[in-house]
Amino acid sequence: MSQSSGGGGAFTGVYHAFKEECNRYLQRKRIPVSSKGSKMFNMTNTEARVEQLTAESFVDLLPEFDTFIFGGDGPMWLREGVITDVSHLANLLIEHKKEVFILTNDTNYSRQTHETKLSQHRFNKKLNKDRIVTPGLLAASYINANVTSTKKGVYLLSSGGIQDDLKEHGINLFGPGPDALASLPNEGEMFTVDISSTDVCAVIIGLDRHLSFKKLVKAASYLKNPKCLFLAINDNAVLGDPNEDVVIPDAGALVAALKKASGREPITLGKPYSPGYEYIKKNWNIDESRTMMICTNVNCDVQFGRNHGMRTLLIASNPHELDEMEKMRSSRCDALPHYYITSIPTILPQNK
């Protein structure tokens, strides 16, 4: 009996060790291990499933998360408005003692403008400016960490509130606004653009509504100095627009021109790249395996979440987005969300 008992004990030990290793493997794959069992991805190249959440299943998931990051470009803002239900969801999460952040690629609004907007739409005051991460904040943080002299100039090719975020963090910037060659220039004017007046330590390029040939000449010339930082807001090709007949180039289209002219590759600040994650990780020490990215964009935000070990919730409010997920199953498993909803109210308690 003692031998039998010993063998059973050894088997039990091996079993528990195997079970623990399986759990560690699942965590590395970012597949949640839930007592209720989660209808998650079958992580193969030929099949993947996305779970549609309900109010009940969302509440069941909450204990598995400490942090929620909202992609501020889609689910938070609709042009000049705000999706009202987002405030209910964010406030619910804060009531459950969750850390909540907004991470946006948008340069139109400063962090202060975002905070004012949140207050107007009755977001919990704990979701304040400190928890809003914008391209301007990321650019300023990167420059301040990598440039020894703050007196050097930063050439900014971007419009909107990014200027306020940069100035708030002591960045000496120049460049915003119109700057074009004469309407009827002589052929030699483009070769005499003055670039000598400022010692430039960085060039930042985003969505600049005043982009001109002259600005590209200046930016590419500054970037001839290998010590001059080259920062891109994002590499998105076009902006989403309700008018399907109009194509609005996004920052990525402008960045492509400067990359070609300068022969250099930029450090891209926005999602799906790492600076936003690294900033939040450094300042709040989040556990990415217990973090959910809530978003409306697959290629940018879902990819960001997956790249950094988070689980992702896609707000698929348009029928074509569901069709797109279906098409992506076999070829783009890595860009599929873990969960999806068709609208925010579907995961809110009835009394919200």
UniProtKB/TrEMBL annotation:
Keyword match Hydrolase: yes
Keyword flag Hydrolase: yes
Alphabetic keyword roster: Hydrolase, Magnesium, Metal-binding
GO cellular component: cytoplasm
Entry binding sites for Mg(2+): 73
Record-level Gene Ontology MF annotations: metal ion binding; phosphatase activity
InterPro entries: HAD-like_sf (IPR036412), HAD-SF_hydro_IIA (IPR006357), HAD_sf (IPR023214), PGP_euk (IPR006349)
Coiled-coil blocks: none
Recorded superkingdom: Eukaryota
Binding site for substrate: 271
Residues at the active site: 73 (proton donor)
The record's free-text note on cofactor binding: Divalent metal ions. Mg(2+) is the most effective.
Cofactor needs: Mg(2+)
Pfam families, sorted: Hydrolase_6 (PF13344), Hydrolase_like (PF13242)
PANTHER family, per the entry: 4-NITROPHENYLPHOSPHATASE-RELATED (PTHR19288), PHOSPHOGLYCOLATE PHOSPHATASE (PTHR19288:SF83)
The protein's name: HAD hydrolase, family IIA
Organism encoding this protein: Ancylostoma ceylanicum
Gene that produces this protein: Acey_s0393.g615
